[in-house]
Amino acid sequence: MRILRVVPEVRSSDFERSRPSPERAVIFVSRYSDLDESSVWPGSRQVRRGLAWLWGVGGNWRVVELPEPLWLRALPLTVSVGLAVRLGDLARRRRTRVVTYAMENNDQLALLRGVPRPLHAAVFAVIRWLGELIYDRIAFASSPAGDCYREAGVLPARCLTELFEDLPEPCTEHRDLDRARRIAFIGALEPRKGLPDLLVAWRDAGLAATGWELVIAGSGPLAEVLARAAQADPSIVPLGRIDRADVHKLLASTSVVVLPSRREGRWREQIGLSIVEGLAHGCHIVATPDTGLVDWLHRNGHTTLPDDFSPADLGRALREATDTRLSPETVWDSLPPVGGRLAAEDWMCDEKQARMGDG
């Protein structure tokens, strides 16, 4: 094996949206509770956080993909493995290419929430210095992600950078054109994902009277709130946690996918997996303004929510989406033939030189 990917928290999409190869190894520290074991590649390993660096110093890797430097919760893992790779390089007199796919799109104050403001410049300077030591290529998942890195001053000057928007290629397995009058929410049942706003907006939008249903798949702390709402309104259909095969089947027969996330603390929706997977299955999207794909979604006819949207705004957006939703063919025609994550992976791992700069 010559390519190592280090993942702090692994989920099924980490494997589904990459190319399995005998040359690739994946190590991860923890797993999402909804990880489908059947999606995990043979040879992948769960490792202890304190021992992950051994993989960096001991392997004869050509490319190592690390978490992005602004994934601050994962920074100890990133730095330990990255510096171990560089120590191994010194011993072997070589240069391993270290790369990352960067999605962080938050503002500086939110990123360092809880850190005294006078220290922000110093913290970002340390992150940039570490980045200079470790990284060779950074692929950005969205334009706002690139802006985030430049504005925070943490983009290593020596890195090659390029933009690969995290758009999927069209799903080739599920190509259904006939869609149910269904809006789907797939994700954690928690306030930051916008579930309370969605339940209020659904009630006020009155779409049940025209034959639409709201299907909600996922688990989380608001499961009881959802259960009470569904008991009062039979047009709300809670599915609980569903496996990956059922996620794809659900999306293949759904007209609209909604993700009304809101910022919370240091967290902001970077892309939104349900947005990506909804697009792949030809769904019209109603999206949070925080996703890094918001401009692309707006340009391509999807429904985007305003900043600081209210439940009333969300209700209007749902009605608009049901009235003017894009057809599956229109959605598929707007997507690239190779998804952004795969294209980024090819660029990060190939031997070709990309231009220095913004991409």
How is this structure best described in words?
The strands form two sheets. The chain has a seven-stranded parallel β-sheet, sandwiched between helices. It has a six-stranded parallel β-sheet with strand order 10-9-8-11-12-13, sandwiched between helices. It is built from 14 helices and 13 strands. It has two domains: 3-167 and 338-349, Glycogen Phosphorylase B (Rossmann fold), CATH 3.40.50; 182-333, Rossmann fold (3-Layer(aba) Sandwich). It is 37% helix and 17% strand. It has 359 residues and is of the alpha/beta class. Helix 7 (195-205) crosses helix 12 (311-324). The model is unreliable at 353-359 (pLDDT under 50). The two termini are 29 Å apart. Strand 1, helix 1 (12-16) and strand 2 (24-31) form a beta-alpha-beta unit. It has helices at residues 12-16, 53-58, 75-92, 108-111, 120-134, 143-152, 195-205, 223-232, 244-252, 273-280, 294-299, 311-324, 328-333, 340-349; strands spanning 3-10, 24-31, 45-46, 63-65, 97-102, 137-140, 160-163, 182-186, 213-217, 236-240, 256-259, 284-287, 303-304.
**How many distinct domains?**
2
**Main sheet strand line-up:** 3-2-1-4-5-6-7
CATH class descriptor of the largest domain = Alpha Beta
Q: What's the helical proportion of residues?
A: 25-40%
The CATH architecture term of the largest domain is 3-Layer(aba) Sandwich
Give the mean pLDDT. Answer: 94
The fold-level CATH name of the largest domain is Rossmann fold
- How many helices? 14
Main pleated-sheet profile: 7 strands, parallel
General shape: globular
**The CATH superfamily title of the largest domain:** Glycogen Phosphorylase B
Distance between the termini: 29 Å
Number of strands: 13
Order of helices and strands: EHEEHEHEHHEHEEHEHEHEHEHEHHH
- Rg over C-alpha atoms, rounded to the nearest angstrom: 21 Å
Task: Please indicate the percent range of residues in DSSP E strands (runs of 2 or more).
Answer: 15-25%
In quaternary terms, these chains amount to: single chain
Low-confidence spans: 353-359
